[in-house]
What we know:
Elements lengths: L3 H21 L22 H5 L1 H21 L8 H25 L11 H25 L5 H56 L5
Helix pairs in contact: 3-4, 3-6, 4-5, 5-6
Amino acid sequence: MRxxxxxxxxxxxxxxxSMISGASSPYQPTTEPVLSRNVLGGIRCDMEYLxxxxxxxxxxxxxxxxxxxxxxxxxMLCSPCGGVYFFEFVSCTAFVVTGVLLLxxxxxLHTKVPHVNWNLTDLVNTCASTVFFALSTLVLACINHNxxxxxxxxxFGALVTFVYGLNSYLAVRRWRRGNAGQGATTGTDYMRxxxxxxxxMEGRPELA
Length: 208
Protein backbone atom coordinates (compact mmCIF):
# COMPACT_ATOMS: atom_id res chain seq x y z
CA MET A 1 0.00 0.00 0.00
CA ARG A 2 1.40 3.37 -1.06
CA UNK A 3 1.86 6.14 1.37
CA UNK A 4 0.61 9.68 0.95
CA UNK A 5 4.03 10.98 -0.07
CA UNK A 6 4.38 8.31 -2.75
CA UNK A 7 0.93 9.18 -4.13
CA UNK A 8 1.76 12.87 -4.17
CA UNK A 9 5.06 12.15 -5.90
CA UNK A 10 3.35 10.03 -8.49
CA UNK A 11 0.76 12.73 -9.17
CA UNK A 12 3.51 15.35 -9.51
CA UNK A 13 5.44 13.23 -11.96
CA UNK A 14 2.30 12.57 -13.97
CA UNK A 15 1.42 16.26 -14.13
CA UNK A 16 4.98 17.19 -15.16
CA UNK A 17 4.95 14.48 -17.81
CA SER A 18 1.64 15.74 -19.21
CA MET A 19 2.89 19.33 -19.26
CA ILE A 20 6.07 18.32 -21.10
CA SER A 21 4.19 16.21 -23.62
CA GLY A 22 1.64 18.96 -24.09
CA ALA A 23 4.36 21.56 -24.67
CA SER A 24 6.20 19.37 -27.16
CA SER A 25 3.08 18.28 -29.04
CA PRO A 26 2.78 19.84 -32.49
CA TYR A 27 -1.02 19.84 -32.26
CA GLN A 28 -1.55 22.86 -30.05
CA PRO A 29 -4.95 24.54 -29.78
CA THR A 30 -5.02 27.83 -31.57
CA THR A 31 -6.14 31.05 -29.90
CA GLU A 32 -6.31 33.17 -33.05
CA PRO A 33 -9.70 34.85 -33.52
CA VAL A 34 -11.81 33.66 -36.39
CA LEU A 35 -12.42 36.50 -38.81
CA SER A 36 -15.93 37.23 -39.82
CA ARG A 37 -16.73 36.07 -43.33
CA ASN A 38 -19.76 38.24 -43.70
CA VAL A 39 -18.26 40.39 -46.43
CA LEU A 40 -21.55 42.01 -47.39
CA GLY A 41 -22.49 42.82 -43.82
CA GLY A 42 -23.63 46.35 -43.12
CA ILE A 43 -25.19 46.95 -46.56
CA ARG A 44 -28.37 48.94 -46.24
CA CYS A 45 -30.35 51.44 -48.25
CA ASP A 46 -29.26 54.98 -47.35
CA MET A 47 -32.48 56.95 -47.39
CA GLU A 48 -30.65 60.13 -46.41
CA TYR A 49 -28.72 60.01 -49.68
CA LEU A 50 -31.89 59.46 -51.69
CA UNK A 51 -33.40 62.54 -50.02
CA UNK A 52 -30.34 64.68 -50.76
CA UNK A 53 -29.83 66.79 -53.88
CA UNK A 54 -27.35 64.34 -55.38
CA UNK A 55 -29.62 61.36 -54.71
CA UNK A 56 -32.66 63.03 -56.27
CA UNK A 57 -30.64 64.15 -59.29
CA UNK A 58 -29.24 60.63 -59.76
CA UNK A 59 -32.72 59.10 -59.73
CA UNK A 60 -34.02 61.69 -62.23
CA UNK A 61 -30.99 61.12 -64.48
CA UNK A 62 -31.51 57.36 -64.53
CA UNK A 63 -35.21 57.72 -65.33
CA UNK A 64 -34.72 60.31 -68.09
CA UNK A 65 -31.80 58.42 -69.64
CA UNK A 66 -33.90 55.24 -69.71
CA UNK A 67 -36.86 57.05 -71.31
CA UNK A 68 -34.52 58.59 -73.89
CA UNK A 69 -33.13 55.15 -74.70
CA UNK A 70 -36.65 53.71 -75.08
CA UNK A 71 -37.65 56.57 -77.40
CA UNK A 72 -34.64 56.10 -79.67
CA UNK A 73 -35.17 52.32 -79.74
CA UNK A 74 -38.67 52.73 -81.17
CA UNK A 75 -37.24 54.22 -84.38
CA MET A 76 -37.44 51.53 -87.04
CA LEU A 77 -36.28 53.39 -90.17
CA CYS A 78 -33.56 56.01 -90.42
CA SER A 79 -31.41 57.45 -93.17
CA PRO A 80 -28.82 58.56 -92.26
CA CYS A 81 -28.62 56.69 -88.97
CA GLY A 82 -25.46 58.21 -87.47
CA GLY A 83 -27.35 60.56 -85.15
CA VAL A 84 -29.68 57.79 -84.00
CA TYR A 85 -26.84 55.40 -83.21
CA PHE A 86 -24.87 58.08 -81.38
CA PHE A 87 -27.86 59.05 -79.23
CA GLU A 88 -28.61 55.39 -78.57
CA PHE A 89 -25.06 54.71 -77.37
CA VAL A 90 -24.95 57.80 -75.13
CA SER A 91 -28.34 57.18 -73.52
CA CYS A 92 -27.62 53.49 -72.87
CA THR A 93 -24.15 54.17 -71.44
CA ALA A 94 -25.37 57.01 -69.23
CA PHE A 95 -28.25 54.88 -67.94
CA VAL A 96 -25.98 51.96 -67.02
CA VAL A 97 -23.10 53.96 -65.47
CA THR A 98 -25.32 56.37 -63.53
CA GLY A 99 -27.50 53.48 -62.36
CA VAL A 100 -24.46 51.62 -61.04
CA LEU A 101 -23.22 54.73 -59.21
CA LEU A 102 -26.69 55.24 -57.75
CA LEU A 103 -26.68 51.70 -56.35
CA UNK A 104 -23.16 52.15 -54.97
CA UNK A 105 -24.07 55.33 -53.11
CA UNK A 106 -27.51 54.09 -51.98
CA UNK A 107 -26.15 50.84 -50.53
CA UNK A 108 -23.06 52.53 -49.01
CA LEU A 109 -20.81 50.31 -51.09
CA HIS A 110 -18.42 53.23 -51.55
CA THR A 111 -17.46 52.88 -47.87
CA LYS A 112 -16.22 49.34 -48.61
CA VAL A 113 -13.67 50.71 -51.11
CA PRO A 114 -12.33 53.87 -49.42
CA HIS A 115 -9.20 54.17 -51.60
CA VAL A 116 -11.35 55.22 -54.59
CA ASN A 117 -12.21 58.92 -54.84
CA TRP A 118 -15.94 58.48 -55.41
CA ASN A 119 -16.68 62.21 -55.49
CA LEU A 120 -14.23 62.63 -58.36
CA THR A 121 -15.67 59.55 -60.08
CA ASP A 122 -19.16 61.01 -59.85
CA LEU A 123 -17.86 64.35 -61.12
CA VAL A 124 -16.24 62.75 -64.19
CA ASN A 125 -19.38 60.75 -64.98
CA THR A 126 -21.75 63.70 -64.69
CA CYS A 127 -19.54 66.04 -66.74
CA ALA A 128 -18.97 63.44 -69.47
CA SER A 129 -22.68 62.59 -69.58
CA THR A 130 -23.55 66.28 -69.86
CA VAL A 131 -21.20 66.83 -72.79
CA PHE A 132 -22.14 63.68 -74.70
CA PHE A 133 -25.88 64.07 -74.14
CA ALA A 134 -25.69 67.67 -75.35
CA LEU A 135 -23.79 66.64 -78.48
CA SER A 136 -25.99 63.64 -79.28
CA THR A 137 -29.19 65.64 -78.74
CA LEU A 138 -27.93 68.44 -80.98
CA VAL A 139 -26.96 65.99 -83.72
CA LEU A 140 -30.29 64.18 -83.47
CA ALA A 141 -32.16 67.50 -83.63
CA CYS A 142 -30.29 68.47 -86.80
CA ILE A 143 -30.48 65.07 -88.49
CA ASN A 144 -33.97 63.62 -88.10
CA HIS A 145 -37.17 63.00 -90.03
CA ASN A 146 -39.50 64.78 -87.60
CA UNK A 147 -41.05 61.55 -86.38
CA UNK A 148 -42.70 61.40 -83.00
CA UNK A 149 -40.04 59.07 -81.60
CA UNK A 150 -37.22 61.35 -82.71
CA UNK A 151 -38.91 64.46 -81.36
CA UNK A 152 -39.54 62.73 -78.03
CA UNK A 153 -35.92 61.59 -77.88
CA UNK A 154 -34.73 65.14 -78.52
CA UNK A 155 -37.01 66.54 -75.80
CA PHE A 156 -35.96 64.00 -73.18
CA GLY A 157 -32.34 64.36 -74.28
CA ALA A 158 -32.52 68.09 -73.63
CA LEU A 159 -34.11 67.50 -70.21
CA VAL A 160 -31.52 64.95 -69.11
CA THR A 161 -28.74 67.22 -70.38
CA PHE A 162 -30.04 70.01 -68.12
CA VAL A 163 -30.23 67.67 -65.13
CA TYR A 164 -26.72 66.35 -65.74
CA GLY A 165 -25.46 69.91 -66.09
CA LEU A 166 -26.97 70.87 -62.73
CA ASN A 167 -25.48 67.77 -61.13
CA SER A 168 -22.09 68.62 -62.65
CA TYR A 169 -22.23 72.12 -61.18
CA LEU A 170 -23.01 70.80 -57.71
CA ALA A 171 -20.38 68.06 -58.01
CA VAL A 172 -17.71 70.62 -58.98
CA ARG A 173 -18.60 72.76 -55.97
CA ARG A 174 -18.41 69.73 -53.65
CA TRP A 175 -15.07 68.66 -55.13
CA ARG A 176 -13.61 72.16 -54.69
CA ARG A 177 -14.80 72.37 -51.10
CA GLY A 178 -13.23 68.99 -50.40
CA ASN A 179 -9.90 70.03 -51.90
CA ALA A 180 -9.95 73.35 -50.07
CA GLY A 181 -10.65 71.64 -46.75
CA GLN A 182 -7.92 69.09 -47.37
CA GLY A 183 -5.44 71.82 -48.29
CA ALA A 184 -6.29 73.81 -45.16
CA THR A 185 -5.85 70.72 -42.98
CA THR A 186 -2.49 69.94 -44.58
CA GLY A 187 -1.33 73.53 -44.11
CA THR A 188 -2.40 73.53 -40.47
CA ASP A 189 -0.56 70.28 -39.82
CA TYR A 190 2.55 71.69 -41.50
CA MET A 191 2.47 74.86 -39.38
CA ARG A 192 2.01 72.81 -36.23
CA UNK A 193 4.96 70.63 -37.15
CA UNK A 194 7.14 73.70 -37.79
CA UNK A 195 6.05 75.30 -34.53
CA UNK A 196 6.84 72.15 -32.61
CA UNK A 197 10.22 71.89 -34.33
CA UNK A 198 11.09 75.48 -33.46
CA UNK A 199 10.08 74.94 -29.86
CA UNK A 200 12.36 71.92 -29.69
CA MET A 201 15.25 73.93 -31.15
CA GLU A 202 14.72 76.74 -28.62
CA GLY A 203 14.63 74.21 -25.80
CA ARG A 204 18.04 72.88 -26.92
CA PRO A 205 20.37 75.95 -27.21
CA GLU A 206 23.37 73.77 -28.00
CA LEU A 207 21.82 73.08 -31.45
CA ALA A 208 21.39 76.81 -32.20
